[in-house]
Amino acid sequence: MIKQILGKLPRKPSKSAEKSDFGGSSAPSNASFSSRSSDLASTGPINANSISLPSLDSVSNLGYSHGSRLAQVANTKPNGNLVTASYEALPAFRDVPSSDKQNLFIKKLNLCCVVFDFTDPTQHLKEKEIKRQTLLELVDYVTSANGKFSESVMQEAIKMVSVNLFRSMSPQPRENKVVVEGFDLEEEESLMDPAWPHLQIVYEFFLRFVASHETDAKLAKRYIDHSFVLKLLDLFDSEDPREREYLKTILHRIYGKFMVHRPFIRKVINNIFFCFIFETEKHNGIAELLEVLGSIINGFALPLKEEHKLFLVRALIPLHKPKCLPMYHQQLSYCITQFVEKDCKLADTVIRGLLKYWPITNSSKEVMFLSELEEILEATQPAEFQRCMVAERALYLWNNDHIENLIRQNCKVILPIIFPALENGRNHWNQVVQSLTLNIRKIFSDVDPELFEECLCKFQEDQSKLGETRRKHETVWKRLEEIAASKAAGEAILVPTSKPTETLSS
């Protein structure tokens, strides 16, 4: 009978480990953990205490199981909830001698490898509560551990985390949402994972396990390997923001503790961005990944490696292109500014990149670009500013004293470029723009009256030529319309061959 049941078990397809590498870190938050269910209902991580993280030198790949036999038997029915009669609570840690606690810890980890179906809240209530209480005990045990975790404990811990977290996700077909007025919060709530009451404790367990001083990085890297990290990064596309928040904190811990994984993590994030920018424009975790990267970029040593500069040019700057930019612009702007603050010579590259993707027909995105441009110019030195002066866009930045001084110093170059915009702005429909234009016009006139008068004469000359050109175009179009009207009336038309400027006769 058991063989027949096992023979019908569906085999889970393993995700390919052939994804590329790239990475980040986000600052973990700190809070005390309580075993009460009310604490687990919060939307944020039940965060571990801040712990300084050691580093690694090498990595080895050792596979881990995706679930015990008990977990597989628990998923043999279509609803995934066939639970054996032996699913009973194990003794508490306080009820066994110290010598047996490690074995009990492993048994509790195996017990938590059973995955329940939370889409039906009426099934297996007793078993779900046993698992929840067991997970809470595991968190407490990891938090208060006094000795190094053995390799067998690490293997079973990562197996339990993998079985519970690495699951197939079937996201609802929907476009990326932009946070605007009228955003439907109830619709966002409907995307919350019903299994979160258990998943949250699993995430908290893993966060504390990674951050614990009792977790030896040299042993742990055999199980927290590239394949594991890759699957963890895949989870950033979760539609549940609470899960993405935990992932962000955990990735920060892994990036800090496992130095050997850093290039791989950065490479994977890089490829996620490429796929998002040039293929799908759909991913739920771009903001969180950028927040992780903001911490990573902040820690880059100087001079910046060529690899990091290429990441800026090929991945970060093109992230301004997708329509859903408002969802992650704040985090993106922070990452970009970090690069410029570390190497002011990158200001020219960044500003030219912004102008390349400038949203001419999208005023709300244009405001974001202008705000980001102001932050970049704040970190720009005069020598670099001369290389990347930004035409009429600079008009919007005159409220910033630093930028105004830069523009004054380069008046002879900037005024001829922006003068047409100044003159046209005097008749703008928006009173604020008119007022701003007149103020800037007066400043330039006071700084260099001769240059201002020269620019004014040239502008009037150009306007006169433009008017003459427009009149010629109008004449040509009028003649073409007359010819077209004549053809429509069926009249014969004589087209001259030698003197096209002569009047055409019908």
UniProtKB/TrEMBL annotation:
SUPFAM superfamilies per UniProt: ARM repeat
Region of interest: Disordered: 1-39
Pfam families: B56
Alphabetical keyword list: Cytoplasm
UniProt GO molecular function: protein phosphatase regulator activity
Xref: Gene3D superfamilies: Leucine-rich Repeat Variant
GO cellular component: cytoplasm; protein phosphatase type 2A complex
Compositionally skewed regions (Low complexity) per UniProt: 25-39
Top-rank taxon: Eukaryota
Cellular localization per UniProt: Cytoplasm
GO biological process entries: signal transduction
Family: Belongs to the phosphatase 2A regulatory subunit B56 family.
Record's function text: The B regulatory subunit might modulate substrate selectivity and catalytic activity, and also might direct the localization of the catalytic enzyme to a particular subcellular compartment.
Name of the featured protein: Serine/threonine protein phosphatase 2A regulatory subunit
